[in-house]
Each structure stands twice: as structure tokens, then as C-alpha cells.
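Quick one, C-alpha cells below. Sequence please?
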């Protein structure tokens, strides 16, 4: 196997680096500075020269608010780059694992979203990610799409790091309690990607993966501060009290039954995974 991991400087890309370490595969890790996926010729040359057999696409335009003002850049990475990957994959018979998001859904359900439920993205980020999914499915249907949500890691910027920063700087913070989801440790997602890559049978399609259990952003924030032993008051507020630039899903819970069944994976509980991540950061009290 010759595996190309794109977006390797991001949260998931870094976790993929760790997860692939010592595995029976030749690995190539690239980010925009070494391989800009929006340039089809560069990608084509790279996969041909290195005889890539698998691509794990962790690259994306992930800033939900910035995407509203910079639609072109978001579309370029989340749609055009995926099209370029699909074209190279078709030409060279490459297996693709592409990462997508809960933002493809409207976010107002009251039962966990299944893979085949209608996508109704409400933001530029969600719309471009959904268009990327559709591009990949139509152009390279042998691909695997993994939708995830509320991703954090010891790498990069994320909610965990933001809460730790605010918690140390302020006496109190206000966090919404009417948005529900499943915090997901990118290391656990990387572990599942490894299972999929090394599984004997390749099973194309869309899958949902998050850590198990649910909470609100308020609960998540309180738990992060508790684990770190930071004394900061957390006030629960409604989304309507917080000035969001873009609509946020009130319900982001994804149904993970399909991935558990097809790949026989045990999904860790979000609190256990958060504790593992914070231990790694030496932040558990
Ligand atoms: N973060 C979340 O909460 C979340 C939730 C649901 C789903 N997801 C999905 O999960 C995946 C991984 O997310 P993440 O949080 O690991 O993202 P991330 O930390 O933002 O990493 C994405 C990486 O892709 C790179 N990139 C951007 N444009 C590129 C290009 N043209 N060519 C090559 N690389 C490029 C970025 O570089 P720059 O930083 O220089 O732009 C960055 O290093 C994404 O598909 C995302 O949509 C994330």
C-alpha cells in the first residue's frame, strides 16, 4: 500500500501521521505547502510518480464563519480539490477515504442522523462540503466518505484549546447549552480510518463516525475545565443570546450504527476520549 494523507498539518492529518506510524505501508504526508490539491496537474504528477494506491483526504477549508465571506476559497478546496482527487483516483485506480461533516444536515432533527437522511446544508461551509461529497460519489463511486462532527485533537486549534485558554484568562464564560452533539477525538477517527484501510474488503459508501454519547457545548466546556482543574464559572446561555455569524446546528448527533456494523469497531465514549487527549496534553489534574 502507498498511502497519501492530505491536509497532514491539520488536526486529523496529524493524528493520521501517528496512527500510520509502524504500519505496513509506504506513507506520504502532504499539506498545501507541499501539494496544493486545487492544482490538478501537481496532484496527478504526485500520484503517478509515487504510485499511490490510497488517498486519505483530510484537507479542507474548515472555517465556518470565514467561508461565508470567502465562498470561492471554500469551494476551491471543498469541491474543486475533491474533483481533482476523484479524477486522479479514477485514472490510477486509487482508493479514496474522504472526510465530511455533520454540517451537510439542517441540524434540527431529534433523532441521530443516518447516512441516507436528506442533506440540507445551511452554511457555505456545509454547502461546499456537501457538493464535495456529491462530486466524489458521482465521479469516483468506489470511494468512502466519513462524516464526523465536533472534532478536537491535541494538534491544531479547537474547542478544547479555546476553553482552556478562556478558562485561564477569565473568571467566567458563557457557553450555549441548546446545541447538542458528540465531541470526537480525531485520534479515534484516525484509528477507524486505519481499520478501513487495512480491512480485507473495501466497502465504498458514506459512513458516520463520532465518539459515542452526546452533550451540549456547555457540558463539554464544563467537563474540559473540570478535568484541567481550572476554576472558571461556566454560564449556560441560549444560541439566541450568542451572536453567531452563521447558523449553527442545534442537533448534530450522527448515527454510527453502520460503521460499527460494517467494520466491527468499538467506538469510545466521548468523556473517556477527552480524558485521554487531555492526559496527553498533561492537563488532567
Ligand atoms: N474540525 C471540526 O470540528 C470538523 C467537524 C466535522 C468535520 N470535519 C472535517 O474533518 C476533516 C478534517 O478536519 P480538521 O479539523 O483536521 O481540519 P484542519 O485542522 O482545518 O486541517 C485541514 C488542513 O487542510 C489544509 N488545506 C487547506 N487547503 C488545502 C489545499 N488546497 N491543499 C492541501 N491542503 C489544504 C489546511 O491548510 P491551512 O491550514 O494552511 O489552510 C489544513 O492543514 C475536514 O474534512 C473537515 O471538514 C471537521
Amino acid at each position: 500500500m502507498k498511502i497519501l494523507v492530505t491536509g497532514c498539518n491539520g488536526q486529523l492529518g496529524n493524528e493520521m501521521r501517528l496512527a500510520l506510524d509502524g504500519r505496513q505501508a509506504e506513507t506520504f504526508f502532504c499539506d498545501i505547502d507541499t501539494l496544493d490539491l486545487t492544482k490538478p496537474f501537481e496532484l496527478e504528477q504526485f500520484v503517478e510518480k509515487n504510485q499511490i494506491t490510497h488517498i486519505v483526504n483530510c484537507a479542507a477549508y474548515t472555517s465556518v464563519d470565514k467561508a461565508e465571506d470567502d465562498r470561492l476559497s471554500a469551494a476551491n478546496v471543498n469541491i474543486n480539490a475533491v474533483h481533482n482527487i476523484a479524477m486522479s483516483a479514477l485514472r490510477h485506480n486509487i482508493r479514496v477515504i474522504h472526510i465530511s461533516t455533520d454540517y451537510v444536515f439542517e441540524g434540527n432533527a431529534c433523532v441521530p442522523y443516518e447516512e441516507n437522511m436528506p442533506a440540507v446544508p445551511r452554511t457555505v461551509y456545509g454547502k461546499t462540503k456537501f457538493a464535495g461529497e456529491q462530486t466524489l460519489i458521482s465521479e469516483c463511486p468506489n470511494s468512502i466518505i466519513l462524516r464526523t462532527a465536533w472534532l478536537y485533537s491535541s494538534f491544531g486549534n479547537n474547542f478544547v484549546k479555546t476553553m482552556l485558554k478562556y478558562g485561564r484568562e477569565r473568571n467566567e464564560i458563557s457557553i450555549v447549552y441548546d446545541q447538542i452533539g458528540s465531541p470526537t477525538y480525531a485520534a479515534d477517527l484516525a484509528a477507524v480510518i486505519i481499520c478501513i484501510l487495512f480491512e480485507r474488503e473495501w466497502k465504498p459508501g458514506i459512513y458516520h463516525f463520532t465518539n459515542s454519547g452526546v452533550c451540549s457545548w456547555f457540558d463539554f466546556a464544563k467537563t474540559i475545565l473540570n478535568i484541567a482543574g481550572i476554576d472558571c464559572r461556566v454560564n449556560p446561555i441560549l444560541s439566541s443570546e450568542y451572536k453567531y455569524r452563521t447558523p449553527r446546528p442545534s442537533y448534530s448527533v450522527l448515527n454510527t450504527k453502520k460503521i460499527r456494523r460494517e467494520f466491527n469497531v468499538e467506538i469510545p465514549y466521548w468523556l473517556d476520549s477527552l480524558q485521554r487527549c487531555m492526559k496527553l496534553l498533561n492537563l488532567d489534574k
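The pocket of NAP is lined by residues 6-7, 9-13, 31-32, 36-38, 58-60, 62, 77, 81, 99, 101, 129, 148-151, 156 (CB under 6 Å). Residues 71-92 form the longest helix (22 residues).
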